[in-house]
Amino acid sequence: MAGQIPEQLIEEVRKANDIVDVVGEHVSLKKKGRNYFGLCPFHGENTPSFSVTQEKQIFHCFGCGKGGNVFNFLMELEGFSFYQAVEYLANKSGMALPESVSSQHTQQNNRMDQESLNAYEFLTMFYHHSLVHANGAEEAKQYLTARGLTEETMKKFNVGFAPYKSDVTTTLLEKKSFHLNHLAHTGVLSQTEDGKVLDRFRGRVVFPIRNHLGKTVGFGGRTISNEEPKYLNSPESKLFQKGRLLYNFDQARSEMKKLNQAILFEGYMDVITADQYGITHGVASLGTALTDHQAQLLKRYVDEVIVCYDGDHAGIEAAFKAAERLKKAGLESRIASIPDGDDPDDYLKAYGKEAFERKILEQSATYMSFVLTYLKRQYDTSIEASRMQYIDEAIRYIATLAKPIERDHYARELANEYNLSVDTIMGEVALNRQQIAPEQKPRIQKQTARKKQQRLYPAYYNAERKLISYMLYDATIAERMKHRLGASFNVDVHKVIVTHLYAYYEAGHPADVSQFVERIEDSEMKNLIIELAMQSLSPEVTEEEINDYVYMIQSEQGDKALIKELFYQQKQAEIDKDYTKAAQVGMEIVKLKKRLKEPLRE
């Protein structure tokens, strides 16, 4: 799996990056006992089942079964290749991969993607330089200054300007040895029907869009003339997927995690202006409705999101859809209301940070309060039939609330508003919840069945799992088992695991699960090894306990295997000069051999 990266270098990178620190950047972890726990980033859950152990440098989710070391975590979470995970962690810890390794990887993997990334980084600097220094950028600078941006803010966000002349950018890229056709193919540049390659953002103010690792993967362009469309994004590509990115996420992440809150804006300028006013935990979707993936991305870092969209009709509609996505992801959401149809950008410039925080953010509505107000806009409650439709719809939403106290609160509000009986409203809420509950039963029943199945494993199966756990923890136990059992385990996957483990120890490696799993290609087997390594073990296991595990394993295999084990015990007794025990074991061997011969006499 390591490919051309030296094994020693891989270990240096792994040891330089504590898995708790790396996982902690993506998952909110809390220490309980010797391990850290949080919500699994790989599947939706409300109760933490994701565990990280600092001692063994591994993670494991008891819900979905995923597990591994720090490299595996990034590969699963970010879709990295193994090389990319090593490279990312090496850079993070201030280490440099040898040029020979880097160049060989670039030749073999993702050559065009790497060239695109390099081109995006180059263009980020070029566009910003053009804005600051180039002739012809005066109108762009005037536009940004009129929007209230300072030079410092423009620099922080690398806001730029793409020159009007269509060949300026492409000529410069060619001089820097970029392949224009490759860049057109991957969406960095555009191409006309007759094959001419052009800068798609020419004449526009350009906003670099970075992934959450801080790498530019696309641009957003805003016209400063009457050109259509007003806003233009890079096209969808392998690197640039709008539904999986949030603008400014890389810079806002630390403050979001610190406050346990994110502010979700609609556009770049709202985020940038808020940041300029000292509100640095804002992000924005990229011209599309919030997606499930974006909501899950926020869920990794915060428990609460304030939706702060424009105050016009379109903004309210978009805020409702975003609130629904956030609720689905298990996030608490509040929805800010901007008066007079303004947008956050205008409000901040007109009234300042203090007013924005006090009157907009702090007074933002809860999810259900906003939903009830939003629903009411859809009906004419002065008309009886329409009013009843609204009440029915409101009850349906109240029924989805998880906390009884919240259901009671909003049921009473609804009853008081329309002079209805609270008991009647709560009765309707209860009926609606009965219709919701069956959807949850299959998942609960499946989990219960899985737990029962785990309890029904035969003794030898559990003995093998426990013994392998000790072998992962202690190389001397593995060495003894190599001579006593070899690969004679009853479960096929256990046979494969111990075979790998024997070879690992024979190569002189230490008892290090995080290092061992790096040599396992099969993902299911890797997850199983991590699961076994996470079992609770006694630091001072007795010889008697180990013998019990071996006995249970060999009993399943029949008398021949047991005789082999007894011979081993007899030899050990003789080495220990316990001749009485050696004689007793010898008598047992004779009895078993006699029993094996009996069927042959028939």
Automatic annotation (TrEMBL):
Single GO BP term: DNA replication, synthesis of primer
Catalyzed reaction equations: ssDNA + n NTP = ssDNA/pppN(pN)n-1 hybrid + (n-1) diphosphate
ZnF CHC2-type span: 40-64
A Gene Ontology cellular-component term: cytoplasm
Cofactor-binding details, from the entry: Binds 1 zinc ion per monomer.
Protein origin, superkingdom: Bacteria
UniProt domain Toprim: residue ranges: 260-341
Pfam families for the chain: DnaB_bind, DNAG_N, Toprim_2, Zn_ribbon_DnaG
Entry cofactors: Zn(2+)
InterPro entries, A to Z: DNA_heli_DnaB-like_N_sf (IPR036185), DNA_helicase_N/primase_C (IPR016136), DNA_primase_core_N_sf (IPR037068), DNA_primase_DnaB-bd (IPR019475), DNA_primase_DnaG (IPR006295), DNA_primase_Znf_CHC2 (IPR036977), DnaG_bac (IPR030846), DNAG_N (IPR013264)
UniProt protein name: DNA primase
UniProt organism field: Halolactibacillus miurensis
Source taxonomy: Bacteria, Bacillati, Bacillota, Bacilli, Bacillales
Gene: dnaG
